Amino acid sequence: MNEISNMTGVWREMDAAHHIHPFMDTGALNAEGARVITHAKGIYIYTSTGDRVIDGMSGLWNMQVGHGRPEIIEAISAQLTKLDYYNTFFKTTHPGVVELSREIAELAPPKLNRVFYTSSGSEANDTMIRIVRYYWKLRGKPEKSQFISRRLGYHGSTIGGASLSGMPWMHEQAGLPIPGMNYITPPYWWTEGGDMAPDEFGLWAANQVAEAIDRIGADNVAAVIGEPIQGAGGVIIPPANYWPAVARICRERDVLYVSDEVICGFGRTGEWWGCDYYGVEPDLIVFAKGVTSGYFPMGGVILSDEVADVISLHGGEFYHGFTYSGHPGACAAALANIKIIKDERLPERVKSDIGPYLQAKWRALGEHPLVGEARMVGLIGALELSPNKKARAAFPQPGVVGTIARDISFREGLVMRAVRDGLILAPPLVITRNEIDEAIVIVARVLDETHSECRRLGLM
Ligand code: PMP
């Protein structure tokens, strides 16, 4: 499978001439030339120059069952052969969307039983904003329209999703956020914890939610949204007491609690949902990615009975929807993917077998002189690189060392993502022990090489 294509140069040129890449400095990339990925199987991706690389990020945190699963590909093909497309707008439905909705309702926490479909996590978050504001309007409280999210939270790149995201550099380029967005300190002990023990910090960070609601006024706050574990913000794993406290604070103040499960859902943490991992029940779940393991675009919002009933019993027509809401191909992909996750017991596997196996090796990397903190839940983790771990110090120019390490990692045969000076690993949930051993050997080599490079550059 390790074929080398003599098309590489041509593809790079055409890519530079005609393709604008997402989340990329396209000018800089064009000068360097993109890596061309030609095929993939299991946990490996293959480049046009003949390299085999471990997909340590599961694509973009979405390929729970790994690449090249014939069960999903055949299910999509069979579905498209039978019913390629039909909409769900005008009094019609189809078997796939019905079956998938029941399946998701069964997997979701007990009081969440109804699903609205989109084609991405960003659209799902925009949909969530529409649902939540509409809900409060119908409840006679239209002024409850403000959202509270956390800095470094990522909720998508559409106007609504980017506005919810606590990433000011995204806002600056686009005249965002839309009105009604408020950002609070994330439960990021490494940078925000100061002298507090993690538990003490967890309650302090949760209390930021209470303070924000009280400052804005509970009468004005529609919902608090958060990822159980902040992914794109750097795999920020809150202390165990954070989410239970936040959920309680929301309940006491009559504010909806939205769990953005786009990364954490479908087994990533060793439970079906990240909110299950933290033992809390949200009012709405936003999902995408792992629902189809990336074989077909899909996202959506799962609504609590309370929210769904208000909208469907009292709302009349909801003026919102997408051509591809509940696309038959996406539904077939999701059903086949969920069947694999269930049949192979992937959440259980992550919780009690492969997760602890990887976590032990990951934590051991915390002893490396370049690593300040090694953290991981289920199969999602980060190594916080630091010039002085005792002081939890940051490098003077954030991002430089992380990028050096990420580039070394790809060259050594492992995709890791860099966020500031953190390295992220979130492999497919089907990864084996041997494959984990192979990945960890590479991570250790990456740390050694990056460490030498830091010393050479006088960074430590
Ligand atoms: N929410 C979270 C938590 C995400 O991680 C992402 C994507 N990384 C999104 C929303 C947006 O999803 P999409 O890229 O499918 O629009």
How would you characterize this protein structure?
The chain has 460 residues and is of the alpha/beta class. The protein has a seven-stranded mixed β-sheet with strand order 4-10-9-8-7-5-6, with helices on both faces. The chain is globular, with a radius of gyration of 22 Å. The model has no long low-confidence stretch (mean pLDDT 97). It binds 4'-deoxy-4'-aminopyridoxal-5'-phosphate (PMP).
Write the layout of secondary structure elements.
Elements: H1 8-18, H2 26-32, E1 37-41, E2 44-47, E3 52-54, H3 58-61, H4 70-82, H5 95-107, E4 112-118, H6 121-138, E5 146-150, H7 159-164, H8 168-172, E6 181-184, H9 189-192, H10 198-216, E7 221-226, H11 242-252, E8 256-260, H12 274-277, E9 284-287, E10 299-304, H13 305-314, H14 328-343, H15 346-352, H16 354-364, E11 371-377, E12 380-385, H17 400-412, E13 417-419, E14 422-425, H18 433-456
Bound molecules: 4'-deoxy-4'-aminopyridoxal-5'-phosphate.
What's this model, at a glance?
The chain is built from 18 helices and 14 strands.
The low-pLDDT segments are none
Shape: globular
Q: Specify the structural class.
A: alpha/beta
**Could you say which small molecules are bound to this protein?**
4'-deoxy-4'-aminopyridoxal-5'-phosphate
Please state the CA-atom Rg, rounded to the nearest Å.
22 Å
Terminus-to-terminus distance: 41 Å
Quickly count the helices: 18
Counting DSSP E segments of at least 2 residues, the number of strands comes to: 14
Quick check: average pLDDT? 97
Lateral arrangement of strands in the main beta sheet: 4-10-9-8-7-5-6
Q: Major β-sheet, in short?
A: 7 strands, mixed
Give the helix proportion (percent range).
Answer: 40-55%
Classify the beta-strand content into a percent band: 15-25%
